[in-house]
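Sanity check

After download, print the first record. It should look like this:
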Amino acid sequence: MDLTSYSDLPNQRAKAANGIDYVYRDTGPTDGGAVPLVLLQHFRGNLDNWDPALIDALGSARRVITFDNTGVGGSTGTTPHTVEQMAYDAIAFTEALDLGQVDVLGFSLGSFVAQEIALIRPGTVRKLVLASSAPRGAAGMHGWAPEVIGAIGSPETSPEEYLGVFFTRSPSSLRAGRQTLQRIYGARGADRDAATDWATREAQYDAVCTWGIPDHAKLQRLSCLKMPVFVANGDSDPMILPHYSYLLAGLIPHAHLTIYPDAAHGFLFQHHADFAADVDAFLNAPQ
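Expected structure tokens:
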């Protein structure tokens, strides 16, 4: 079966019951009829901030859908200031596409939203993938380190600043990072997604800071999750430390943990082939 590369997929629109027009890309059904995999993007990210190599690898075996949540990129509305509202908005998107039960992969801020979706609507989520994630209420997550938010939270983020957060300083990781940037910014020329604006940045960072207010009791919420969960991170992530992946795996009853070597926040782009294979094995494993 011939598959269209993520770089060539058209931007589509779906109007949801909450009044929002969501922009999304859809690899389309595969012959196997697998449950759709919905992806939730990182802080300030839009459709074009996904590495096409990762999406193509994930989409070789199943339908993969990426989208801009409310107020992000090309989607209408105002970006919420809470992760919980972002989750309700994401649920509205999946309902607009009449997806039924889905698998969910959340990356960074998107992984916070993914946790909330699984808690709010557990019957909708068959399996959950949390990449570069942390639980709500964990100590040390009240905002990011100054050097991190200074690099990726400023009005203009340079390629070198991106590399410094998403990849390690080793030659191999930096080489992978530059290749990732070439794919993200060079593979798609026309019909690129709208850039996220400053209001979205402020709202998303408010949501991150609120998520990270220390509250030990909130950690216990994750014991409710009954679906299988795959937790993953790089071993040198400066944005969401690997410590939080171990914490998540200990709090979630049916969690599997993988830490990828010589990798930072962008481990899933650096190790896109291995990560996609691990996700595929996880999603195909019997429950």
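If your output differs, re-run the checksum step. Summary of this record's structure: The chain has one domain: 6-284.
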